[in-house]
Amino acid sequence: MNKKLIVAGAVLLGFATAASAQEGTVNGAAGGAVTGAIVGGPVGAAVGGVAGAVVGTVLAPPPREVVTYVEQQPIPEEEVVVREKIVVGKPLPETVRVVPIPDDPKYAYAVVNKQRVIVDPSNRTVVRVIN
Predict the structure, then answer these.
(1) Is Signal tagged as a keyword (predicted)?
(2) Is 49 helix (H, G, I), strand (E, B) or coil?
(3) Whether residues 29 and 85 fall in one domain
């Protein structure tokens, strides 16, 4: 019975933590631990904390300087349009050219479907959509 609660808690935790992942690693770990403790007791807290930290790290928001830099870049004359919806946590299609951010190589950006997006250049995953 306890194992079922722990598994159920971990699944629920994944959904809850993914929704708040933009807050970063610390909040992800804390939120995961609390949710895990409620659902699965001490073992659930440990599992939840680890899962929350992982999700929080993966989708940590870019620094304000990066966002400001991307907001200030001119819109390219050649419009890039893709059929897929641009979603945080999903990679951009390979056909989209991403531009590195000079002062922070952990991030790059692109303008797709008239939206500026900040991505992780190592895997092209969207970390923020700027409207």
Answers:
(1) yes
(2) helix
(3) no
126 and 73 in a common domain: yes
Closest CA relative to residue 71, chosen from 24, 109, 23: 109
What's the whole-model pTM score?
0.57
Confidence band for 53, pLDDT divided at 50, 70 and 90: low
Judgement on whether residues 72 and 37 belong to the same structural domain of the protein: no
The structure tokens listed for 105 are 């190589």
Tokens of 55: 């999700």
In contact, 125 and 98? CB cutoff 8 Å: no
Q: Which residue has the tokens 């895997």?
A: 123
Q: Strands, DSSP E only, in 12-124?
A: 99-100, 108-112, 115-120
Let me know whether 77 and 118 are in one domain.
Answer: yes
Q: Structure tokens of 4?
A: 């079922």
